[in-house]
Design a protein that fits this description.
Layout: H1 2-13, E1 19-22, E2 27-29, E3 41-45, E4 48-53, E5 58-60, H2 64-67, E6 68-70, E7 77-79, E8 88-94, E9 97-107, E10 114-119, E11 126-131, E12 141-146, E13 149-153, E14 156-159, E15 167-174, E16 177-180, E17 184-185, E18 194-197, E19 202-204, E20 216-220, E21 223-228, E22 233-235, H3 239-242, E23 243-245, E24 252-254, E25 263-269, E26 272-282
Length: about 290
């Protein structure tokens, strides 16, 4: 940890930002100066030689023998299969002259965050919290998304009834990766449930009207129910026999309702969540089974 921050401070002090690499990926270190005719190249990792070339065979040292590639036309050094041990200060001499110094920081990718929600008992406000393990993942920033909107913030985001977004998602970002949480629906935008009787049918319709629909995806809870991407309609589980999809309106019709059809249904139209519907399948009076 101390080494990482020391390297970062050193890079800032030199007025040159560090080069970040993700564990397992590759990094390409280049010379700041362009030399028309290169006759020699010498790369050092800290005080130690990494690779060198003097017009003939390229000589590599330590782990650079297996994971280092030297471009003798440009002087660039490529390191594959990055590990944290590859972090450090790299200097290059081209034609016996130091032409650049690069600080390489190899860091882990972020994990997938989870999004929790807590609401004040009187429902005056709710707090969304972005949770996840950020240990050993440096320089993590928190971002929030809702529909087409994305903004940088802290790990908590407060909402009230004035917020009319349908859903929220949080994002972990660092210089080498990003990962989004699952969507959480706005509790202030919850609709009344849709009721259906056993044996009848239910028609679930999107809240938003889209002039030209190019894709539709309905989910029952976390599981796909039906989807359409401009060609054939795909149905899953019991929706193969009892589901009908209107590709002009996005509506999902379920026939022969059973109690197992109860639950939360979400629909994405043109890759955007447009509505959430809670379906409750109930018995007819004096005809419950």
């Amino acid at each position: 940890m101390l080494l990482l921050y020391f390297l970062l401070w050193t890079a800032v002090a030199a007025n040159k930002g560090p080069l970040y690499g993700k564990i397992g990926d590759k990094a390409v270190l280049t010379s700041d100066s362009v030399v028309n005719h290169i006759t020699s190249i010498e790369w050092k990792h800290g005080p130690d030689l990494a690779m060198e070339w003097y017009g003939g065979e390229t000589t590599a040292y330590r782990h650079f023998k297996d994971r280092g590639l030297l471009n003798t036309s440009t002087g660039a050094l490529t390191i594959t299969g990055l590990t944290p041990d590859d972090s450090g200060s790299y200097t290059v001499e081209i034609n016996n002259k130091v032409t650049s110094k690069t600080q390489l920081l190899v860091i882990s990718p972020v994990s997938k965050p989870t999004l929790s929600i807590w609401c004040e008992p009187e429902m005056t406000y709710c707090v969304l919290t972005c949770n996840g393990n950020t240990t050993g993942v440096e320089l993590v920033t928190y971002w929030w998304t809702s529909g087409a909107d994305t903004w940088s913030s802290t790990k908590e985001h407060n909402i009230t009834k004035e917020d009319n977004e349908l859903w929220f998602s949080c994002v972990f970002k660092n210089p080498v990766s990003s990962s989004s949480s699952e969507k959480v629906f706005n509790p202030f935008m919850e609709k009344e449930p849709l009721y259906g009787r056993i044996g009848d049918k239910a028609v679930l319709t999107p809240d938003s009207v889209v002039n030209l629909i190019t894709s539709i995806e309905w989910k029952h809870g976390p599981d796909l129910a039906m989807e359409w991407y401009g060609g054939e309609t795909f149905s899953y589980r019991h929706f193969k026999d009892r589901g009908r999809l209107n590709t002009l309106t996005g509506a999902l019709t379920i026939t022969g309702l059973t109690p197992d059809d109860s639950g939360s249904y979400t629909v994405e139209i043109n890759n955007k969540v447009t509505s959430k519907t809670e379906l409750l399948v109930i018995c007819k009076w004096r005809n419950c089974v």
